[in-house]
Amino acid sequence: MKPNHTPTPCAVVLLLLVSLAALRAADLPPASGVTVGADGKLRYACTGNGDRIVDFSHAGYGGGGVKLPVVAVCKEVAPSGNDDSAAIQAALDTVAALPLKDGVRGAVLLRSGTFHCAQQLTLAHDGVVLRGSGAGQGGTVIEMTGAAHICVSIAGERLRFPKENSAASIPITDAYVPSGATSFSVKDARGLAAGDVILIRRWATAQWIHFMGMDKLVRNGQPQTWMKNDAPLTVERGIRAVQGNRITLGVPLTDALDARFLAPGNAVVIRTKRPKRLMQCGLESLRIVSPPPSGTLTEHNNDAATLDHCEDCWIKDVAMHNTLGNVKVGAGARRITLEDIHAVHAATIEKGAGYPADFSLSGQQVLIQRCSSSGDGSFYVATLNSSATLNVALDCKFQGKGGIQPHMRWSTALLIDACQLPEGRIEFINRRTSGSGHGWAIGWAVAWNCAAKTLTMEQPPGALNWCIGCTGAFGKNSAQSGPWLVAHGKPVTPASLYLAQLRERLGESALKNIGY
């Protein structure tokens, strides 16, 4: 029998008793997603362990459902006809020196016309926005010139957490904490309180790596490393409540914690302090144009925008033409909104080591909404590592023979919601020996009411990847039946899972705040 635990409350719990020796994905009992009850409330099916589809509504600026601020213009720049990098950066630095008021300082407005930029533009102080006069005809164009570079960087200083010590580490005592859980018990919660920030950490033990089938990856006679033994897997969360030794989180966990694959004390809560991230910065209403990329993925080409070590930042109403990487979100970024971004690939690169991605995600709680891309030779959305968690692509349209594909080393909880890929692919897969041993790329992911040419849904040991209300042919390695598959070829209600979850958590006004 599975170890005793306290599962997350769910509307439907289907119990299954299995022996510890029979630990495989097929042992997960039916968990057929989310439905709407007669009272209009969402009903979550759970596995026997309590795992369920995560509440994705926490993705986006402000933790979801918060309207992007309209920041007043404090400085304007007109195009000179020459390299405008220094003039734009000087204006950004001038605004950065202003005092903060309600979390913002001000916006730099780029007037209509074409700005030539041979250097990176950097937003590195809280509350600064770079805004153009429109992304369309007659608006603002940043034309990237000179050596390859990043057009706009939104990044704070590298995150620094206080030095850890054994006294700050508190063992988690539940034998199993399910994916989607918002609470668990610890050995001693004294000293913890609502509002505290904690790190929740486990280590990739040899037992877990073996269970995942990732200890025997070999390519061309050489072993490939998916994840090193005892590599730390850490998530940052805020405490909403403490009752006795039970902690309730403000944002759910996206992966299960199973004591069967952990040495004693191998899953812990670490007391810490909230790290300083760059906050309230944005890029808005302009077009970035690059010369066509060349060579392979390893060649240095222009990137449009990067975000890292930041929180509650955004990019909206931006067009990107021929940049190789359109938006890259680093592991230190969280609660990011990427809205109405439209990318065009008039040219592509040779395949080489791989393809670039329009949206590369290493951070958490990122909302990509109403975005588009056209052209071949790219991944549309790719997660890059285990720090990429609780991310959402909503109402996006991708034209071309690309795909949405979590890329490597076990990211968790990605929602692809009401997206259209008429010539493309959605792939939740084991990449096996690709790269240096990318292996299982994703668990607890959901494709909801999407249309794609091909759907490839592989099921990891001890986890699920759901495909609900989606249209498309199954890929070569895809499973084609199971509790993860619901209403293939026929859309389900609600039309959008993210919006339904957001409405239930925060009310109708939250949808209006983000344009729905």
Please sum up the structure shown:
With 516 residues, this protein is mostly beta strands.
Count of all domains:
2
Write the CATH homologous superfamily of the largest domain.
Single-stranded right-handed beta-helix, Pectin lyase-like
Instruction: State which percent range the strand residues make up.
Output: 35-45%
Give the tally of β-strands: 41
Count helical runs: 4
Percent of residues in helices comes to under 10%
The name of the CATH architecture of the largest domain is 3 Solenoid
Look at the structure and give the CATH class of the largest domain: Mainly Beta
- Low-confidence stretches at least 5 residues in length (pLDDT < 50)? 1-27
Radius of gyration, in Å, reads 23 Å
Sheet of most strands: 18 strands, parallel
Kindly report the CATH topology of the largest domain.
Pectate Lyase C-like
Q: What best-fitting shape do the alpha-carbon axes yield?
A: globular
Structural category is mainly beta
Plain-language structure description:
The protein is mostly beta strands. The protein has 2 domains: 12-52 and 161-271, no CATH class; 61-158 and 277-513, Pectate Lyase C-like, CATH 2.160.20. Helix content is 7%, strand content 38%. The protein contains 4 helices and 41 strands. The strands form 6 sheets. It has an 18-stranded parallel beta sheet that branches. The protein has a 10-stranded parallel beta sheet with strand order 7-10-23-25-27-30-33-35-38-40. The longest helix is centred in the first third of the chain and has 12 residues, at 85-96. The relative contact order is 0.14.
